[in-house]
Each structure stands twice: as structure tokens, then as C-alpha cells.
Amino acid sequence: MDQAKVGIVDDHPALILGTSVLINAHPGLVVTGTGASAAALLASGASYDIVLLDLILADGARTAGNVSAFVSRGVPVLAYTSGDRPELIREAGRAGVMGVIRKSEPPKRLIAAIHAVLRGEVVVSPDWAAAIDTDDEFVTAQLTAREAEVLALYASGETAERVAQRLYISRVTVIDHIRRIRAKYAAVDRTAINKVDLYQRAVEDGIIRP
Q1: What's the predicted TM-score (pTM) here?
Q2: 112 and 9 in a common domain
């Protein structure tokens, strides 16, 4: 059976060990790399399908930069945090994180969150929702220019293949953009699960005409 590869970024060795044991105990999941920083995990050369990322690291790197380092490579990120820094949760959301889960959650919820993100779903926790509620600027999910282009074409009826052809990018890149678009809308409580939802959001935001 194929196993989904998990990377972990955390600067607490005991937590990495415990989380690795927990994940490796579940069929279909295997930890293939760990690091005390995003840079360390990237430098390890490990391959992974999802990354668990602590939002507070000793190297002082910005949360947005850490998230983007993986998202730009097409790897979804699940923030694994204590939840006591709402501003970091907001920053992670803006950078394209696919979910937020507390380290204090029961193991079964962590595993469920990992599987959800691997399916392309967004994991919105109470911490994330609360962080958004206190950020007036973030309630209008801001898409990048490229994301808006992808949304305009895809929501208008084009397939991912056709969008890729028209924008001269790969189908994988299109799918990654769509995943991030959905994550941004879900983070501001404007869920877009299917293509009809994406069309509605694009109309609401003036990206395409009704």
C-alpha cells in the first residue's frame, strides 16, 4: 500500500519523536523527514506529501516565509501549534496554510487532519476562526493576481488542463492554485468546496461577471 510521506518542522526533539511515532503507527502514513526549521527540512532532501509546521521556531524565520517555502513547491502545510499566537495563525493563513491544529488535540484528530489535508480539504479550527474574527483586513480573502486568473478561467467552466494550456503552466500548478484559493476562502468563512462554490465566490469578488 502506498504511504503518504509526512515532514515535520519543530525545534523540540521530544515532540518530533512523539509525533513521528504516532504518525508511523498509522497505515498509509510515514514520517520521511524532520527538521528544527523549514530550511533544515528542505536541506535534508527528504520527500513529503504534507508538512506539519510549528509556527514558533527558534531560528526566528517568519511564519509566512516558512509556509511559502513548502507551498511554492506544491506541498500542503498543516500548522501544528500551541494556538497562543493569533497573529501567527493569521499570517500562516495568508501564506496559504491548509489547516491549523493544536498540539494539545487528541492523536486521532491530528491523524484525521492530516488525511483531510491530503484529500485537498481545508482544516479550519476554532483557533483559526477566532484569529480571523479579530482581523478586519483578512475577512476579504485576498487572492494573488495569478490565483485570480486561475479562478476566473476555472470557475467559468474551463478544465484544469485547459487552464494550464491557456496560462502556459502545468496542470499540477493549476490544481495547487485552486487548492490555495479554496484554503483562502475557507479561512474567511466563505467555503468553496466545489466548482459551483468557486463560481459564486468569483462573482461575489468581481473576478468574473455573473
Answers
A1: 0.66
A2: yes
